[in-house]
Amino acid sequence: MKLLAPLLMAAALAAPATAAFAAGPAPAQAKPDLEKGAASFGTVCVACHAEDGNAPLAENPKLAQQHPEYLVKQLQEFKSGKRESAVMQGFASMLEEQDMKNIAAWLATKPAKPGEATDKALVALGERIYRGGIADRNIAACAACHSPNGAGIPAQYPRLAGQHAAYTETQLKAFRDGVRKNNLQMTGVAAKLNDREIKAVADYIAGLR
């Protein structure tokens, strides 16, 4: 019995160490491959978003210089159906997560082409809302999350500067009307804006740089 007790104690002490060793460290995440990202973009995305990510048609967003984390999130949610788009779901379903990361990292290296505000009658209203919000209606300033110059905050809020006004207007209305459901914060903000205010903000954003 005296001999058995030390053996049991030794086994008990050894068990946690063995379990910890068996678990091992988590596998390292593969770094984005820019070359593969460029190739995947050229195969899947280029027709709508142009060779450098600066889509020429106002209905399609400019993706150049966008934060990679934001792009990956959107592609994942298109693929899962959380963000609804029959066209984008079809393309996103062709991509694995590493493909998405490669594409997003490559796009982040492409300079975004500047846009411009075109509606002089509304740009002042757009600037007021973007920079200061509408206090008496509890509408927060866009700049609080997307920064005063529209650069956004990496890994948190997307870059908006220079984005096509028509695309931004469409997305704000989709948030407001419950068509786009993948960001409750934006749904809450857009729900308080009327069509004129949305158009004004979208036009002002197009001219940010």
Strand content: under 5%
- Multimeric state of these chains? single chain
Helicity range: 55-70%
Structural class call reads mainly alpha
Q: Radius of gyration in whole Å, from Cα? A: 24 Å
The number of distinct β-strands equals: 0
Main β-sheet: number of strands, strand sense, barrel status?
A: none
- Distance, first to last CA: 81 Å
Count the helices. How many?
A: 11
* Average pLDDT reading: 90
Order of helices and strands: HHHHHHHHHHH
Describe this structure in words.
The chain is mainly alpha-helical and 209 residues long. 55% of the residues lie in helices and 0% in strands. It has eleven helices and no strands. The protein is globular, with a radius of gyration of 24 Å. It starts with a helix and ends with a helix. Mean pLDDT is 90; it is low at 1-22.
Keywords:
209 residues; 11 helices; disordered N terminus; mainly alpha; globular
Summarize this structure briefly.
By secondary structure, the chain is an all-alpha fold.
List the helices and strands and how they pair.
Layout: H1 4-23, H2 34-44, H3 46-49, H4 68-80, H5 86-92, H6 97-108, H7 120-132, H8 143-146, H9 165-176, H10 184-190, H11 195-206
Helix pairs in contact: 2-6, 4-5, 4-6, 7-11, 9-10, 9-11
